[in-house]
Amino acid sequence: MINNLTSSVIESAIKVHKILGPGLLESSYKECLAYELNKKGLQVEKEKPVPLIFEEVKLECGYRLDLLINNELILELKSVDAVADIHIAQTLTYMKLMNKKYGLLINFNVTLLKDGIRRLINKYYQE
Q1: Which end of the chain has the least Cβ crowding within 10 Å, N or C?
Q2: Which residue from 41, 62, 40 is spatially nearest to 51, judged by alpha carbons?
């Protein structure tokens, strides 16, 4: 169930944030979060290529999402002063291109991690 998966991911992200604190590079949080999720027995894919299909041609444009959990939940991680609309748009676009219904945008550069988490749903998802 997606709620259990999302809760488990958020719990792990909070643990990583409590240990590391804000102010590090995104890559540090990504590696530590992937490690924590693997310890929980979740399937974690890092730097997953995102295909772009244009007029039925698959193009390799170098897009990569940060983490894909259990082939179901996209995690886009940031370490920025504030999440901008472009970060939300990027995550939603990855969800659309990968045809994934659920995503989390997590900004680790905050005092309390709960303030840096955005849950997203892909309205274009097709089962």
Answers
A1: C
A2: 62
Query: What per-residue confidence (pLDDT) applies to 28?
Result: 98
Q: What is the pLDDT of residues 81-100, one digit of tens each?
A: 999 999 999 999 999 999 99
**How does DSSP assign 51-93, residue by residue?**
-EEETTEEE----EEEEEETTTEEEEEE-SSS--HHHHHHHHH
The pLDDT value given to residue 92: 97
Q: HSE-up of 41 (CA within 13 Å, CB side)? A: 0
For domain 2-121, give the CATH number.
Answer: 3.40.1350
Q: Kindly report the backbone phi and psi dihedral angles of residue 51, in degrees, each rounded to the nearest multiple of 5, phi listed first.
A: -75, 145
Q: What is the dihedral of CA 84, 85, 87, 92, to 10 degrees?
A: 160
